[in-house]
Design brief:
about 35% helix; seven-stranded mixed sheet
């Protein structure tokens, strides 16, 4: 009897094998580890993937476009996935022909699809029909054993939902991105890398709308009037922002020299309930606020803690902690750490978590398992402590906040101030990340006379809407039902990678703005939040057996074909607009000829360089060392941008000839003909000395040293002499 268990990651495979048997042995196939043990006549092999081992591609077209899609090994279509080859080969070698299979990948739609594809395509022989499902939210021995001993049937609705999501994303992403790049090529004869997507483009549209609001915002002046009094009181006029200068001047002048009468003193107490348990979005938002972590950085650290067995599965929407988790036992285990023990011992005896409204059928809220970690990375340590203290605090008592609100009468004008202080710590005592209010209440009562020391009038301006940061954007996407908890961070990362956006306070670059404006004008459906939201709801309908995969994909194909038709009908305009924006985004300086120096990329040679926008009339180019960054700082000698490169980083002028006797503008010396393309060979100077380069750069990248050129010349003469002798 042979049983094969498929896990999603190597560390998960190790946890599962060790939990199921003390006899589990680690074995190697090439560089890949797998686990085996044998008990009661049954041999068990635990194998793992590394995320997705299969990707979608077109069944017919060499350029990967179309709607007839098939699953193929990821390494066949993406060179960066070459590391998955050995994992797939190991599964094929040790996973085929087993008597039974257990799907033990993460229990969500992505994990379900990963395991299903491995069973179907790598294990073969209808392995998926012989498979059961393990469901666990932590990689603790208890949860693994419970999931193994109580297996579930494979949820084919989950499988179909995963397949439909990937195919929809392919329909929109691959086909439309290719159509946009094709439009640019036809309009400009240039290649630029562009991407659009079912969720990516509406997300960019949200950012572009905010960017437009900020740029179109016209500030309006207003005035704030304050009264400074005894006991450090700073009271503000109750009208707040006063937009009429005459009104502000009148209040300011009439209050000069007057004292204040306390007209009201009201002290109230507010109950602050404990926070709710973390779901992924909540954890990402809190980590961004406290530590400045990007959502993806937080997600990576949380995933590592889960795989280590220290916390539960992070990609959850739930804010619930069911009693079945063994909450008392988790707290008892955490108490072995003296730091946490001091907080846990003060919790109420009747342990009941304060929960939020959101639920997730697959997993509970993020929580510690009780297994205390050894050495963690700095990021993991911060996220672990945050999860533990949030977990402890949800069981604590309410906090109480005391607020004093007072009003003053100054020459008939009403001013007000407030003070706050925590009167009972409650849960705040167990959540060190929350700053506690500790204002001093002034000893005043209604009817008191207070001396006014000064009346202040400050002129200010209204400010535009705040920019999104990554955490606030994820909240916005969650509110608008765009994307999923597992994909939102990756979508934002892709927008950064494509140079559509930049900065921690997200600013949309010209290419991103132009992308949205172009698509809104010529194919509006692609930027539509409603279209994306509708598909998200329909995908959820597959999981609940309300809709079929086939119907959703049929609708998706119709939408994409309609968008592609719009692009084709306006190809020249779309291509010109996008290429113009691309050039603007990549302008790094001014050329001596008056053109713009633009950072370009050569897909053929996979290198970047700087070229003039007036090419081919102006052939000025500057090569960029590998890993070079263009700095905002300008060269003090020639005014071109500085670049940084190398280890340790060097800061130099973009022009390697800067500061040398030979001018940049002087024509380089012609020293021969290129042996590869026949164009002139030029003597050039680089960061590492003089060299010979082809004048047809960057199309021809032939280079050699001066000595090598002499050798080439000698061989040429010898060949000519031999030919003449014959």
């Amino acid at each position: 009897m042979h049983e094969v268990i498929i896990s999603e990651k190597p560390k998960s495979a190790e946890k599962i094998a060790k939990a199921l048997s003390s006899k589990a042995q680690k074995k190697k196939y090439k560089k890949i580890s797998y686990w085996e043990f044998e008990e009661a006549g049954k041999k068990t092999t635990v194998l793992s993937g590394v995320g997705h081992l299969y990707s979608l591609t077109s069944a017919h077209s060499k350029n990967r476009l179309g709607f007839d899609l098939i699953w193929v090994p990821s390494y066949e279509i993406d060179k960066s996935s070459s590391y998955t080859r050995d994992y797939l080969n190991a599964i094929k070698k040790f996973g085929k022909g087993a008597d039974s299979y257990i799907h033990a990948c993460d229990y969500d739609i992505e994990g379900t699809l990963i395991g299903y594809n491995i069973l179907k395509y790598a294990c073969g022989n209808n392995a998926e029909s012989k498979a059961t499902r393990m469901k666990f939210s932590t990689l603790t021995k208890k949860d693994i054993l419970d999931a193994y001993n109580h297996p579930l049937k494979l949820d084919y609705n989950q499988v179909d939902s995963g397949i439909a999501r990937h195919m929809l994303d392919y329909y929109f992403g691959m086909n439309i991105s290719s159509a946009l790049m094709s439009a640019v090529r036809k309009a400009s004869s240039r290649y630029i890398s562009l991407s659009a997507g079912r969720v990516q483009t509406p997300t960019l549209s949200i950012l572009a709308d905010r960017e437009k609001q900020i740029k179109e915002f016209v500030p309006e002046p207003y005035w704030l009037i304050k009264a400074l009094s005894d006991h450090g009181i700073e009271a503000s006029h109750v009208e707040g922002r006063i937009f009429e200068k005459e009104r502000a001047d009148k209040i300011f002048n009439e209050c000069q020299g007057a004292d204040a009468t306390v007209t009201e003193v009201k002290v109230s107490e507010t109950i602050r309930k404990p926070p709710v348990p973390f779901n992924l979005g909540g954890l990402q938002a809190e980590a961004h606020t406290l530590f400045g972590f990007s959502p993806k950085r937080t997600q990576t650290a949380a995933q590592n803690l889960y795989v280590g067995g220290y916390t539960s599965y992070p990609r959850t929407s739930s804010q619930k902690l069911p009693e079945s988790l063994g909450l008392k036992n988790i707290l008892l285990a955490l108490s072995k750490n003296p730091e946490y023990r001091e907080h846990i011992k003060d919790l109420p005896k009747n342990l009941k978590p304060h929960e939020g409204k959101k639920e997730d059928a697959a997993h509970p809220a993020i929580h510690p398992t009780g297994v205390l970690p050894g050495k963690l990375s700095p990021d993991e340590d911060k996220i672990y402590r945050l999860i533990v203290y949030r977990f402890i605090s949800v069981f604590a008592e309410n906090s109480k906040l005391e607020t004093m609100k007072s009003t003053l009468n100054v020459a008939g004008e009403e001013f007000a101030f407030s003070r706050k202080r925590v009167s009972y710590e409650g849960w705040l005592k167990h959540y060190p990340f929350k700053k506690q209010e500790d204002d001093k209440f002034p000893p005043i009562k209604e009817g008191d006379l207070l001396k006014i020391h000064e009346i202040l009038m400050d002129e200010k301006e209204t400010k535009p809407p705040a920019r999104y940061n990554e955490a606030s954007l994820i909240k916005e996407l969650e509110k608008k039902e765009l994307g999923t908890k597992a994909t939102r961070a990756d979508i934002i990362s892709k927008l950064y990678d494509r140079k559509y956006i930049e900065g921690r306070q997200i600013e949309v670059k010209p290419l991103g703005m132009n992308m949205v404006e172009t698509l809104k004008e010529y194919c509006k459906d692609l930027t539509s939040e409603e279209l994306t939201r509708t598909f998200e709801r329909e995908l959820e309908g597959i999981s609940s057996n309300e809709l079929t995969k086939e119907k959703i994909l049929e609708d998706g194909e119709k939408e994409v074909r309609s968008i592609l038709k719009d692009i084709h009908n306006n190809e020249e305009k779309i291509g010109s607009m996008l290429y113009g924006a691309y050039q603007e985004t990549n302008v790094v300086g001014e050329c001596a000829c008056g053109g713009k120096l633009i950072k370009r990329h050569s897909p053929r040679y996979k290198t970047s360089f700087i070229g003039c926008s007036n090419f081919p009339k102006c052939r000025v180019t500057y090569s960029l060392p590998k890993g070079a960054n263009i700095l905002k700082k300008k060269c003090p000698v020639c005014g071109l941008p500085m670049i940084s490169y190398g280890k340790p980083r060097k800061h130099v002028c973009m022009d390697p000839n800067c500061g040398k006797e030979v001018s940049r503008r002087q024509a380089p010396e012609v020293v021969g003909k290129c042996p590869e393309c026949g164009r002139d060979l030029l003597k050039r100077s680089g960061r590492y000395g003089d060299f010979i380069g082809c004048s047809n750069f960057p199309r021809c990248r032939f280079t050699c040293s001066l000595d090598e050129l002499n050798e080439i010349g000698k061989k040429k003469k010898e060949n000519e002499a031999n030919t003449a002798g014959k």
